[in-house]
Design a protein that fits this description.
Structural class: mainly alpha
Strand content: under 5%
Order of helices and strands: HHHHEEHHH
Number of domains: 2
Number of helices: 7
Number of strands: 2
Helix content: 55-70%
Strand order of the largest sheet: 1-2
Radius of gyration: 34 Å
Length: 168
Amino acid sequence: MAKFKNLRKVFRAWKDCLPNLATIIKNCKQVLFFLDTLEEFWDLSIEEWNFRANLQIHLENTLNLQITYWKQRGTIKWVRFGDECTRFFHANASIRLRKNFIMSLNDENGQAIFSHEGKADLIWKAFKERLGVSELSHIYFNLEDLLTPLVGLDSLEIPFSKEEIDQI
């Protein structure tokens, strides 16, 4: 137990040493804004231009780290609390329902449609218009000439005999 307590203390100290991603992102954005403002008044030197490009790359990498952090944090919470019948689980289910639910659709006249049947009909008509109607009205080749019947395939329809089953 003492080893776990010591490990927890070390991890907390390590966490405090880590840079705060939000602060880094805020500072990068402020410096980029300052460089953009300077660029409005005069052309940036090559060193300033390279610094701005490197800072932009650093900001993108930091934002990707933040996205990864929040994805992992959400996964950890889901693993810990997702299978339980908790408020967390019900809140996530409600959020997913609201996010995936289409409240209304506008038809070609701009009128909002709220009923399920109306939305289904509108989507069906939209797909039907996109897919179009087939213009094929006549087949220009003779299928009987292309498909010649094979003779002697009647033996394939005969049930298996007991001797054939015993051979396997």
